[in-house]
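Quick one:
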Amino acid sequence: MTTTAKKEAVKTAGPRRRGPYATTPARRAEIVRVASASFAEHGYERASLRDIAARAKVTHAALLRHFATKDELLLAALAQRDTDDEELARRIISSKVPREKVLSSVLTEEFSHPEQMRNWLAITIAATNPSHPAHDFFIVRAEKIRHQFTSKKLATTEDSEELTAADKVTMVLAMIDGLRIQHLLDPTRSTLHLMEILMQLIASSEEVSKSQWSH
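Output:
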């Protein structure tokens, strides 16, 4: 084969693979994606690594090379869900939604998938047990949310005569979890306007930059 012919053959064949680890990040991301779907559909306890491997179109052994245990995979799925929620909040903010409606808009999207919300809420409740594999994840997550609300120019930054800024954050977090439960119990009842009312009630008097909001 001539040199010119060899070059044409390489072009036709397309880019060379760079060994067995060339697609590892993409494969890992796909495993996390289907694991999130499995956990949302079946709950953490009922989801199996073999089912997740089948969904990701990898062998069980290949999955274990990425995630040694289901606990490890759960933490990766929770972290990805947080990232997705933050991206959703950024999209809502960029659409110029009034500041008091940002959280209720995020919840509107979540409420449209009740079975997923039920299973993720079950994981959250189970993680209140200190021995649960996701316990530390939720502790750190709560502190991160508190930091976002109290260290930036958000509507909960200032203390009032009745409530400290930290008290306000606790009320917001409790309202979010409570509305999730109320919606699952009776989806016909309108509740998200209550989130907006709370945000108005605890808002600081100073103008808030919406670009700082995140959930």
